[in-house]
């Protein structure tokens, strides 16, 4: 049944997520050539780079036609929000991901809040939107939620519009500040949301518009420093599966959140194809959605590609065609972990520092995915942004996976190094601690 490698892929994006997708796709017998736009010093070792950014959709379409690209996989959210899937599809080009309208689940918090209000069958924290300062302050005075509230501004990315006051007085201060600084006038209503207590996990699945096939649950670590201290980041490390998410809980997340979201989108005639990522809080009252993304996670994908036993390419093709020819996705045994090595000023970014990467090739369950890296004409590899490398390993247990990754970073001689590199030593702490939460 083997056709001879009919596919030429375009993978859009430049991070470690895209390197991991390229690494996985490279293993597919269906793939002849892979192009990355724009790629990085890591993807360049296994595929070719196109010097175009992720938002240059017209240019990417030209390249796709000229290079005979048969299928495109999109990593980041920006091109999805700009309608890359709509435009490629209009050109008759196969592409994996949701349309601009379907991707609103990620790019509009206000739309998503309304969507969740229209679909109470999908469990989410209670939320109310306010336009008047007095009404918001009144609500705080009479707050009905036992664990307090979260204050959210619409239209701000990466958690920067989220405040978690510890007392009513702090909540009032935040609200007064928002109105006094007139942030409000540019941002639309503020949302007061029930504070949820629990462990946060990522539930990610791939949909063909009708069904959704879940990947293994994973857990990201968003704060910069050990012990969940420091500023919010894009993510400092992840592992999958998550031992305290029982198979019973995985079924609940699938039945109560992932599939009902796909059903609700279809009901509203906004068919969602591609990757649906639900950020979930496991509360004492069951799993609840905190946010949706319309794409793979970074760094979750680095660990997930290492666990994926099936070929990613036909799964993404079937999703794009709107018809799976399978009932599930198969995974390898064990656990995979990735630990992000970030620039010394991350969440800022750094350019031009030399990176040392010594050989790690002997173990097929270890990969050093590149994020923001650049190869100079003289062959040296230098830093080129915030998250620089995502070393990733699979082991029989979470503990073993972690040991493999940390030995790349910490044992002498150091295999991976650049000046000032920051990383967390406590990735997986919730799952490794002796008394694990039970959900
Ligand atoms: P968001 O940008 O909405 O994903 O929020 C960023 C982070 O704030 C989440 O990853 C959570 O850690 C936290 N957060 C957001 N909403 C809530 C909530 N209702 N209860 C507790 N934590 C929350
Ligand atoms: N790891 C979080 C994200 O990709 O949004």
Relative helix content: 25-40%
User: Biggest β-sheet: count, sense, barrel?
Assistant: 6 strands, antiparallel
Radius of gyration, in Å, reads: 22 Å
Number of strands: 26
Shape: globular
Distance between the termini: 43 Å
Structural class: alpha+beta
- Sequence stretches where pLDDT stays below 50 over 5 or more residues: none
pLDDT averaged over residues: 93
Describe the protein's topology.
Blueprint (H helix, E strand, L loop, with lengths): L6 E7 L2 H11 L4 E8 L9 E2 L7 H11 L3 E4 L2 H5 L2 H7 L4 E2 L7 H4 L1 H10 L8 E4 L2 H9 L7 E5 L8 E2 L4 H13 L2 H5 L2 E5 L4 E10 L3 E3 L4 E2 L2 E3 L3 E4 L4 E4 L6 H21 L5 E11 L2 E8 L6 H8 L4 H10 L13 E5 L1 E2 L7 E5 L1 E2 L8 E5 L2 E3 L5 E5 L1 E9 L2 H13 L5 E2 L11 H4 L7
Parallel strand pairs: 1-2, 1-4, 2-3, 4-5
Antiparallel strand pairs: 6-9, 7-8, 7-9, 10-11, 10-16, 12-15, 13-14, 15-18, 16-17, 18-25, 19-25, 20-24, 21-26, 22-25, 23-24
Helix pairs in contact: 1-11, 7-8
The structure holds adenosine monophosphate and glycine.
The site of glycine has 6 residues, from loops.
Task: Describe this structure as you would to a colleague.
The protein has 439 residues and is an alpha+beta fold. The protein is 30% helix and 28% strand. The protein has 14 helices and 26 strands. The strands form 7 sheets. Strands 12, 15, 18, 19, 22 and 25 form a 6-stranded antiparallel β-sheet that branches. The protein has a 5-stranded parallel β-sheet with strand order 3-2-1-4-5, sandwiched between helices. Strands 6-9-7-8 form a 4-stranded antiparallel β-sheet, covered by helices on one side. The radius of gyration is 22 Å and the shape is globular. The structure holds adenosine monophosphate (AMP) and glycine (GLY). Glycine binds at residues 220, 235, 293, 297-298, 300.
């Amino acid at each position: 049944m083997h056709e001879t490698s009919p596919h030429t892929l375009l993978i859009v994006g430049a991070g470690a997520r895209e390197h991991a997708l390229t690494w996985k796709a490279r293993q597919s017998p269906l793939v002849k050539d892979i192009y990355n736009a724009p790629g990085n010093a890591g993807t360049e070792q296994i595929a070719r780079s196109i010097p175009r950014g992720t938002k240059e959709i017209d240019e990417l379409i030209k390249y796709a036609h000229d290079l005979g690209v048969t299928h495109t996989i999109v990593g980041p959210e920006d091109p999805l929000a700009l309608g890359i899937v709509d435009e490629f599809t209009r050109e008759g080009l196969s592409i994996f991901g949701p349309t601009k309208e379907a991707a609103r689940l990620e790019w509009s918090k206000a739309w998503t809040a309304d969507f969740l209000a229209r679909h109470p069958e999908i469990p989410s924290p209670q939320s109310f939107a306010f336009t008047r300062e007095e009404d918001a302050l009144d609500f705080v005075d009479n707050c009905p939620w036992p664990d307090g509230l979260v204050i959210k501004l619409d239209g701000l990315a990466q958690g920067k519009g989220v405040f978690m006051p510890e007392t009513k007085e702090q909540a009032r201060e935040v609200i007064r500040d928002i109105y006094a600084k007139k942030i409000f006038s540019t941002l639309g209503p503020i949302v007061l949301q029930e504070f949820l207590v629990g462990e946060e996990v990522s539930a990610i699945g791939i949909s063909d518009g009708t069904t959704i096939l879940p990947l293994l649950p994973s857990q990201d670590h968003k704060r910069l420093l050990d012990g969940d201290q420091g500023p919010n980041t894009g993510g400092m490390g992840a592992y999958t599966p998550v031992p305290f998410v029982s198979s019973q809980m995985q079924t609940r997340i699938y039945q109560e959140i992932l599939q009902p979201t796909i059903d609700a989108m279809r009901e509203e005639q906004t068919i969602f194809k591609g990757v649906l990522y639900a950020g979930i809080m496991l509360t004492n009252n069951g799993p609840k959605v905190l946010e949706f993304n319309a794409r793979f996670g970074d760094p979750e994908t680095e660990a997930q590609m290492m666990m994926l036993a099936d070929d990613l390419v036909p799964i993404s093709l079937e999703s794009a065609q709107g018809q799976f020819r399978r009932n599930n996705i198969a995974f390898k045994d064990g656990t995979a972990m990735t630990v992000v090595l970030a620039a010394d000023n991350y969440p800022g970014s750094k350019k031009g520092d030399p990176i040392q990467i010594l050989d790690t090739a002997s173990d097929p369950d270890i990969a050093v995915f590149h994020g923001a890296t650049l190869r100079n004409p003289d062959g040296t590899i230098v830093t080129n942004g915030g998250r620089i490398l995502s070393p990733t390993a699979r082991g029989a247990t979470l503990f073993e996976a972690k040991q493999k990754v940390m030995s790349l970073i910490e044992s002498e001689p150091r295999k991976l190094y650049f000046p000032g590199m920051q990383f967390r030593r406590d990735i997986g702490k919730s799952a490794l601690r002796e008394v694990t939460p039970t959900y």
